[in-house]
Automatic annotation (TrEMBL):
Keyword Ribosomal protein attributed: no
Keywords: Coiled coil
The protein's name: PAS domain S-box protein
Stretches assigned to the Histidine kinase domain: 366-559
Length: 564
């Protein structure tokens, strides 16, 4: 038995199971004699149903099915008008498809009386309430007392209906709807004549039920084809490859886009094992891809991996593969659905950017190196020039300037050896800075102990440079003035975080600054620089002169100011 015959038999079984006529026959088959004269309606119905199903299934379009229904109805319904309405997608309404049993003269008369062309009659689906939908879609051919008024939704005056019923000799009106998923897609109206034969519902209803099932199947088939066409349009033109692998690792689906993206025909992949697919990855990436696939199948979690994949032309491209496990209704592992996206251009751009950044990093490192060298040259020039200075005060000025240059030079030296050109490690920088000050200004550095307590802090240059200069000025002041006459002592530099701020404490136990000195208003260059640098940091400073000198500075890291 071929698939087509099997599907037809399945449809017949469905009709037998769900339609009233066949249910009644199955329930009473044991004591029901179809040959009895009183069961002639069922005999007539069965005579039509067997060939009817086969004929209907063989018809390719809905229009041909409707025409065939009209033809069969005419064989069993005598002296009646038959109206079939079908769904019109453009107007989302039911429109009259055909009227059988009338003459051209009768149609002309009806159109004159109503002022409406038969072909223009339509009934929007949204005008049907739930009660009307339930009434029309219950699978029964039902009599309606309102006659033409009901089947035309009361669009005409009652006087017009009376004239029509009288002119055409109308007796009784029956209606049955065709529906799918609660939406009406057609209806049949049978209008009997007063002098005609009575309508045999038991004969007509099974025919309409069979036709309804076939029409539903045809509409669903058409919708499926429309979706398949849309899916095909998407999968053929998508920018990535989509596939499905079953629990055994066999490809069940691969999107046609694989031809465009990777150059392979879907038939080359379908039915193959996923490991054959993995073998097409770059040798250096195969372990990474295999591990990612195995991990996803074991953990049942989504996974992703970036790797190189060999196209049909032999060239490798970078792709990103994403996988998501599938489970059946019983939560059993059922395979993987995956997508593969071409990221070759992104990867190339990333490599170009990386190369560009490395080049810029090299240039920036060289720039810091040259700045450091230039500052060391300036410091050396100041040192050479100071050899010709005899005045002690002038010598101190030269030495202070030399220290300030060294302070800035140290920052560029730190940056030159750092991996981060935007931040500097304060702990190492302050230790080097204060040690340099101590060794260059005190002939016997051992008599003054230097203690540096600085937290591991990375700070942007915007703040680090004025902070370094500030520490230089305060420590230099202690080195130069706190320990006169070879006095021993200690200098302590302490820097810690305080929430989003920093607290810098620099103290010495030397001779101290006279109490009558107001350092905030002093006219010495050192104190002026200290105040200016504190202002540059938007900070606050205190000075205490008990048992030596202690400066406390509180500040926050400055926001980086863009240069362009």
């Amino acid at each position: 038995m071929n698939d087509e015959e099997r599907s037809k038999e399945q449809l017949i079984d469905e009709i037998k199971k769900y339609r009233n006529l066949y249910s009644e026959l199955e329930e009473n088959m044991a004591d029901f004699n179809l040959l009895k004269p009183e069961n002639k309606p069922f005999q007539d119905a069965l005579k039509f149903l067997s060939p009817l199903v086969m004929e209907l299934l063989s018809l390719p379009t809905e229009a041909e099915i409707y025409d065939y229904i009209l033809e069969k109805l005419q064989e069993v319904v005598k002296d009646a008008y038959i109206i079939i309405s079908t769904y019109d997608e453009n107007s989302d309404s039911l429109k009259v498809y055909k009227v059988i049993g009338t003459t051209n003269r009768m149609v002309d008369l009806a159109e004159k009386l109503t002022g409406v062309k038969i072909k223009d009659l339509h009934f929007p689906r949204d005008t049907l309430d739930q009660e009307a939908k339930n009434f029309l879609s219950n699978g029964k051919l039902q009599k309606v007392d309102d006659g033409l008024y009901y089947i035309t939704a009361g669009k005409l005056p009652q006087k017009t209906y009376n004239m029509l019923e009288k002119a055409f000799g109308i007796d009784e009106t029956y209606v049955m709807g065709f529906s799918l998923k609660g939406e009406m897609f057609g209806s049949v109206n049978i209008i009997t004549k007063k002098k005609g034969n009575p309508l045999n519902i038991n004969t007509v209803e099974p025919i309409l039920n069979v036709a309804s099932v076939v029409l539903q199947n045809k509409i669903a088939e058409k919708e499926l084809k429309k979706r398949e066409k849309l899916l095909s349009l998407v999968t053929n033109n998508m920018l990535n490859v989509v596939g499905q692998i079953d629990s055994d690792g066999t490809f069940q689906y691969i999107s046609p886009s694989i031809k465009t993206i990777l150059g392979y025909d879907p038939s080359e992949i379908l039915g193959k094992n996923v490991h054959q697919f993995i073998n097409l990855t770059h040798p250096d990436d195969q372990i990474k891809v295999s591990s990612a696939f195995m991990e996803a199948t074991i953990s049942y979690l989504p996974g992703e991996v970036k790797h190189r994949f060999r196209r049909a032309d032999g060239n490798y491209i970078w792709v990103e593969s994403l996988g998501n496990p599938l489970f059946d209704d019983e939560n059993q592992y059922n395979g993987v659905v995956f997508s593969m996206t071409n990221i070759h251009s992104l990867k190339a751009a990333e490599e170009n950017l990386k190369t560009s950044l490395e080049e810029k990093e090299l240039l920036l490192r060289e720039l810091h190196h040259r700045v450091k060298n230039n500052m060391q040259i300036i410091s050396s020039l100041l040192s050479l020039q100071s050899q010709h200075i005899k005045d002690k005060r002038d010598m101190e000025i030269f030495e202070s300037s030399q220290n300030r240059v060294k302070t800035m030079s140290l920052i560029h030296e730190e940056l030159y050896s750092s991996q981060d050109f935007t931040h500097i490690n304060l702990s190492e920088y302050i230790r080097n800075l204060t040690k340099e000050l101590l060794t260059s200004h005190i002939g016997d550095p051992g008599r003054v102990q230097l203690t540096v307590n600085v937290e591991d802090i990375n700070m942007e240059l915007e703040t680090a440079i004025p902070l370094g200069l500030l520490i230089n000025e305060i420590v230099a002041n202690s080195v130069n003035h706190a320990f006169a006459h070879h006095q021993e002592g200690e200098i302590i530099v302490d820097l810690k975080r305080d929430g989003d701020a920093f607290i810098l404490k620099i103290s010495d136990d030397g001779i101290g600054i006279p109490e009558n000195v107001d350092f905030e208003k002093a006219d010495t260059l050192g104190f002026q620089l200290i105040n200016n640098l504190v202002n540059q940091l938007d900070g606050e400073i205190e000075m205490h002169t008990n048992n030596g000198t202690r400066f406390i500075v509180k500040f926050k890291e400055l926001e980086y100011k863009k240069r362009f």
